[in-house]
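note to self: dont lose this again. the chain is below, predicted strucutre after it. 506 aa total, dont forget to put it in the shared folder this time
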Amino acid sequence: MTTGIHHVTGLTRNVQKNVDFYAGFLGLRLVKQTGGYEDAEQLHLFYGDRLGSPGSIVTFLVWQDGAAGRVGLGQVSEIAFAVAPSCLGEWLTRAMRAGVPVSGPAQEMGESVLRLRDPDGIIVKLVGLEMPTDAPLDDPTAPTRIRGVTILTENAETVAGFLNRFGYAEQRRDGPFIRMASDSDVVDIRGSAGFVTGGQGTGVFDHVAFRAPDVEAVRGMRLALRDHDGATAVHDRKYFMSLYVREPTGTLFEYATDAPGFTVDEPAEHLGESLFVPPHDQARAADLRVILPQFARPGAERMPMRDLPFVHRFHTPDDPDGSVLVLLHGTGGSETDLMPLAARINPRATLLGVRGRSTEEGINRWFRRLDPLTYDQDDIAAEAEAFAGFVAGAVRGYGVDADALTFLGYSNGANLLGAILRLHPGVVRRAVLLRGIEVLDDAPAADLTGTRVLMTTGARDPYGRMAPPLEAALKAAEADVDARLIEAGHELSGADLTAVQGWLAG
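---
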């Protein structure tokens, strides 16, 4: 039976840069894009040879703008791809021209190697070695197969022994390295006593998967590991069946079948063109297609991303009408939280979701509070000013029509909008405040003539008694305020959707 690596999975914080590197620079084919099976709100991209053959696949879970991880013990630290030996010089030139960090060529384990870093800082090695594939890529210089991975551990012998289960045997030793070989590739185990423990996040590998001949082999491995801590049940990942287990020193392994493969739901000539949602998440497929980050393929037109004061996310519909909904989440939310609601409000609107910069016990907010009903006035002022700058930067940087902007905030996001309206008159001319309340202790005088505001308050909202002061303050500043009482609590309801749609149409 064929043994070796099935795929390697990493984490990226920028989907566009990831696609540009692996599909654009390296020339791998994007063979599948799905919502993650463990968390469908994470985009999962698969790259490989023309058919995404086992042994050629590198995958990435997209934690867009997520925190960086730490490479260390109990992790895959590097991936190596084979390229034709005669192409190493060309790859060195390509990397230098593209501004890709590169070193080498150097000799490692008797092989000529270039070491690159992808946009997240992951080490990608190109090894001069003939490893033909049955599904070659159009570019004959592109990587053909995964040559291997490197694992960091404090106990190389233990990892080597565990790898025996997956068809690997010791091939050679070189300093701190033990090279384990299957019949198709290698795993280099680096003994790194005293090194830091790895931490999960972007810019690191999550796991390496090894090839299983069939489902029975996966089930057999599960039985063999029944007394091993951390082994999982058998999972149906649609494109393969697999189980997960951590080897004794911490590295996450997967054991995955070759079949059925990526052509089970797309023909070979159209692999990777459609976004698929895991079967158990089909009920919210429409929402997920709005939440998951968009990207452009290499060479295609794309929206440039600007370095602005707030993390943000665009969603462009298939048939945009020119309007833009700027979305400010509630406490504990993110830039994508309101996108499904906004897409229902207007399916043709471009959506700009923004993430608050203040945090409270690890959750996102727009400004600090001193207690549940007392708010840090200096922080409100600072974040309002920063947001005003963000809006100006977005208008300039993305070519957004300022007159086409409607700002929609929920709870804490609505509260910030209520403050911005008076602290920076004119920045927000059309606003929807869902469950907004007054948070300013001493608002300055402002002229909001020509500014339209919709406020919806839940009839059972415990914070609802604090909405009328905000309504009164906005009306006193000559804003056109439409205040509505919704049969709901603090949570949003279908009545909010209906109210916003009608208001925008009016």
